[in-house]
Amino acid sequence: MVSDTVQPKVFTEPQSMREFSREQRKLGRRIALVPTMGYLHQGHLSLIKAARDLAEVVIVSVYVNPTQFAQHEDFGVYPRDEEGDMQKLTSLGVNAVFAPVRLYASGMPEPKGAHETFIQVEQLQQPLCGQSRPHFFRGVATIVAKLFNITEPDLAVFGRKDYQQLLVLQRMARDLNFAVEVVGMPIMREDDGLAMSSRNALLSSENRQKALSISQSLQAERRIVSPKELQDAVASRISAAGGRVDYVEVVDASDLKEVEDATKQPTLIAVAAFFGSVRLIDNIEIK
């Protein structure tokens, strides 16, 4: 267990971050990585606490990854709070923070050109968020692979709110023989049921209230057996509340493929919807 009084070491360059990790490994310490894009909320903090229970050294990365945003998306307004993040990380006894300025060569002034290597998990990245954000998992898989190579952890902790992301990264780690265990932790929710997300800060008070329809619809309709009827019922509730549905899908929780009966296997009901310009995702697992 990591002491609450540990002051995090802050690294901005890959080489110094890697050297720290290798020093810890020489001492026989187990290392956990918690990748984040900052603007930390209680959901992130729960992942860090879980990492502390699983490893002796906890590294938190803070980097808003540009390659998982399309040009029309919210990279420029994605919430940031560097000072607040550091206070939270210090209070939790995080050992190290990796906060690079950039992790992709731009071609200027690098003489060998811009970054051009990307990772795709070809099947798992296609459904759900992959339909409306085809660029997204290419960017996620690439940045996480880079973070694995830089921090060299024994395990990495992710939240199950981003369920498809979790499966994509577990598959990537397996297929590319990363010596990293990818661990998924439960969704953290606000008291009123809204799934915790940094993007919640971008919601107006009116749209935040409307966004409760996502978790409410998942709970209310989860017992419907027919996937089509379940999809329609959830989408109808969200639309009636003023949301714009991106997708509602009922899929096999292991491979995200469509199912004919929501009760015959572990099933995932996954939702993405817009409230104003803010896109939120949520899900619920049916065992």
From TrEMBL:
A Gene Ontology cellular-component term: cytosol
DNA-binding in keyword set: no
Name the record gives this protein: Pantoate--beta-alanine ligase
Reaction catalyzed: (R)-pantoate + beta-alanine + ATP = (R)-pantothenate + AMP + diphosphate + H(+)
InterPro entries attached to this UniProt entry: Cyt_trans-like (IPR004821), Pantoate_ligase (IPR003721), Pantoate_ligase_C (IPR042176), Rossmann-like_a/b/a_fold (IPR014729)
NCBIfam families cross-referenced by the UniProt entry: cyt_tran_rel, panC
Signal peptide: none
GO biological process, one term: pantothenate biosynthetic process
Organism superkingdom: Eukaryota
CDD domains for the chain: PanC
Pathway assigned to this chain's UniProt record: Cofactor biosynthesis; (R)-pantothenate biosynthesis; (R)-pantothenate from (R)-pantoate and beta-alanine: step 1/1
Stored HAMAP family: PanC (MF_00158)
